From TrEMBL:
InterPro entries, sorted: Aldolase_TIM, Indole-3-glycerol_P_synth, Indole-3-glycerol_P_synth_dom, RibuloseP-bd_barrel
HAMAP family: IGPS_B
Enzyme superclass (EC): lyase
Pathway connected to this protein: Amino-acid biosynthesis; L-tryptophan biosynthesis; L-tryptophan from chorismate: step 4/5
Residue ranges occupied by any Indole-3-glycerol phosphate synthase domain in the UniProt entry: 4-254
Protein name listed in UniProt: Indole-3-glycerol phosphate synthase
Gene3D superfamilies the UniProt entry points to: Aldolase class I
GO MF annotation terms: indole-3-glycerol-phosphate synthase activity; phosphoribosylanthranilate isomerase activity
Family: Belongs to the TrpC family.
Keywords annotated in UniProt: Amino-acid biosynthesis, Aromatic amino acid biosynthesis, Decarboxylase, Lyase, Tryptophan biosynthesis
Highest taxon of the lineage: Bacteria
Keyword Amino-acid biosynthesis: yes
Organism lineage: Bacteria, Pseudomonadati, Bacteroidota, Flavobacteriia, Flavobacteriales
Catalytic activity: 1-(2-carboxyphenylamino)-1-deoxy-D-ribulose 5-phosphate + H(+) = (1S,2R)-1-C-(indol-3-yl)glycerol 3-phosphate + CO2 + H2O
Length: 262
């Protein structure tokens, strides 16, 4: 069993348990459930957007410690001041050390569009995302069938959330294209082997129709890479470790965006 299969197996158990404990009717009564969401796709399309989607990530299966010592609010404020287009918040606890409460804290601290970074396999997790203040959900093509992608993305759209669909190869891309997606993310990291190559974004770019906002994810650690990926049509750049592994992720992001604009 590869790591992705293990994560999904554990996620199924976690979600089934949570569904027993929390009725949907309760989530729908959370104060944040009614709010108007903030579109990341629209933000990325604006001229002059930095395109940076900065991630909060304490640890990962490929790197046991990234940053465990900062408060998520502090990181969020630093990112917002730096001029990022949006923020991604990992909510998986077992493998990434995150939680839905992290989304709630970020929502209370900044106005940025917030992506709930999670292994979504059930509509319940999309209701949670809305209830805790997220604006965008991630769907990962490697763990979902076409019909699951369709029903989950339609659920998200009905709630006013943006959908970022993540692919890693051509087969995943071809099986996933449908109008209920807003952004197409190409993960440069193979979630089964952890190998990273920006060539994945370069080679898949021309197969992504222009009606989707293109996002390149993972392994981005320099400004030149972004300039290069822009020439392939990418408008969003998901950056985690390069910022989070420093003592001051907001400062790192600020320097990065300044270099991008100079
Ligand atoms: O830390 P990096 O290499 O900059 O990567 C960030 C982000 O792309 C990565 O965390 C990620 C992309 N897709 C995911 C799916 C699940 C968990 C994590 C991810």
């Amino acid at each position: 069993m590869n790591i992705l299969e293990r994560i999904v197996r554990d996620k199924r158990k976690e979600v089934d348990l949570k569904k027993e404990l929390t009725p949907v009717s309760l989530l729908e009564r959370f104060p944040l459930f009614e709010r108007k969401t903030n579109s990341l796709a629209e933000k990325l399309k604006q001229v002059g957007s930095s395109g940076i989607i900065a991630e909060h990530k304490r640890r990962s299966p490929s790197r046991s410690v990234i940053n465990q010592s900062l408060s998520v609010q502090e990181v969020a404020l630093g990112y917002q001041n730096a001029g990022v287009a949006g923020m991604s918040v990992l909510t998986d606890l077992k493998y990434f050390g995150g939680s839905l409460e992290d989304v709630l804290s970020v929502r209370a601290s900044v106005q940025l569009p917030i992506l709930r970074k999670e292994f979504i396999i059930d509509p319940f997790q999309i209701l949670e995302a809305k209830a805790y203040g997220a604006d965008v959900i991630l769907l990962i093509a490697a763990i979902l069938s076409r019909s699951e992608i369709k029903s989950l993305s339609e659920t998200a759209k009905d709630l006013g959330l943006d959908v970022l669909l993540e692919v890693h190869n051509e087969a995943e891309l071809q099986k996933s294209l449908m109008p209920s997606l807003d952004m197409l993310g190409v993960n440069n990291r193979d979630l089964k082997t952890f190998e990273v190559s920006l060539d994945t974004s370069r080679s898949l770019s021309e197969q992504i129709p222009d009606d989707f906002v293109k996002v390149s994810e993972s392994g981005i650690s320099n400004v030149d890479a972004i300039q290069d990926l822009r020439s392939y049509g990418y408008k969003g750049f998901l950056v985690g470790e390069h910022f989070m592994k420093t003592e001051n992720p907001g400062k790192k992001a600020s320097e990065f965006i300044k270099a991008l604009n100079s």
